[in-house]
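Changelog note: in this version the structure field was regenerated for every chain. One regenerated record is shown below for reference.
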Amino acid sequence: MIERTLFSADHESFRDSFRRFVDKEIAPFHSEWEEQGYVDRAVWSKAGENGYLCATLPEEYGGSGADKLYSVVQMEELARGGFSGIGYSLHSEIVAPYILHYGTEEQKLRYLPKLASGEMIGAIAMSEPAAGSDLQGVKSTAIQQADGSYLLNGSKTFITNGWHADLVIVVAKTDPAAGAKGTSLLLVERGMKGFEHGKRLKKLGLKAQDTAELFFDNVLVPAANLLGGEAFRNKGFICLMEQLPWERMQIAVTAVASAQAAIDWTVQYTKERKVFGQPVASYQNTRFTLAELQTEVQIARVFVDKCLELVCQDKLDTATASMAKYWTTDLQCKVMDECLQLHGGYGYMWEYPITRAYADARVQRIYGGTNEIMKEVITRAMGLGGK
């Protein structure tokens, strides 16, 4: 195996610390969270107390000023255990960065420390019943009123952390006639009149992750809650496009770590499980299948690690991130299918981690932009035409 050089000794020390946190605060409870459809809010508070939320934020906003690789460590450790219900990465590495990069100083001081402590849980509301990967098709509107506030109307669906969310970055049209050029981002807080958390959605996988519908019925959003202030009015689509490469890389990181976990589980299972008096691992088909999968995952890891180096240098382009997202998630689903097959009938039993990982993997090819959209992005970077 190629030795990973991406992480320093400090990163690995952090990995050990976070792994102990996961073993104590997440692993014993995750199966019951799957039954109830959401994680207990206490696991957010405990993460905040231990500095595991928004660590990459500057210290003045409640973070540790850490580099993104510390968040990558968390993503890998959660994927290693199949703990897909924990929405830390979206909260810390999608929601908080929007406020850090585009928010006014007042918005940063008002929200970021609360996100870092776990006092507030964050979500971002892009997808709508009729607009998933097509962000230009968003129908929600936020019409500016005479006093400068915005009247928000619309609905969102498939929102991760949506049930617990105290702060939601809402994508809406502030100038509906201008299409994508009329899109803005609004900071909507729990308790604003007309803002309702809908039902928790029942999904094929990710059963402990609180995914919900959100509804906005004449929500009066103060002018001070327009992300970035008046300077960013109608510039929300540009902000979304700038942040999507890092979001897609997070999906790729999880894909590779999850695929490796599946191989590790399967190696152990096939050594112990006997068929016709021999361990399943003794059959050439088993060994060759696992050898092929491990080779492909190794290739994926090298590519993703290189992309992460580019992230740390602020050099990762949209097309490369799209390549990583589409290829690793396709591979993840392939690995899960092959590994489940090697488990035989037990691979279909929910008590086995491979079964849950198989169900969890399928959405990876859909969210963050479907893999078909990823291919469109790549072809455009190649200079190939398209509608």
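Spot check on this record: The chain has three domains: 9-117, 122-237, 238-381. Residues 336 and 358 are 5 Å apart (CA to CA).
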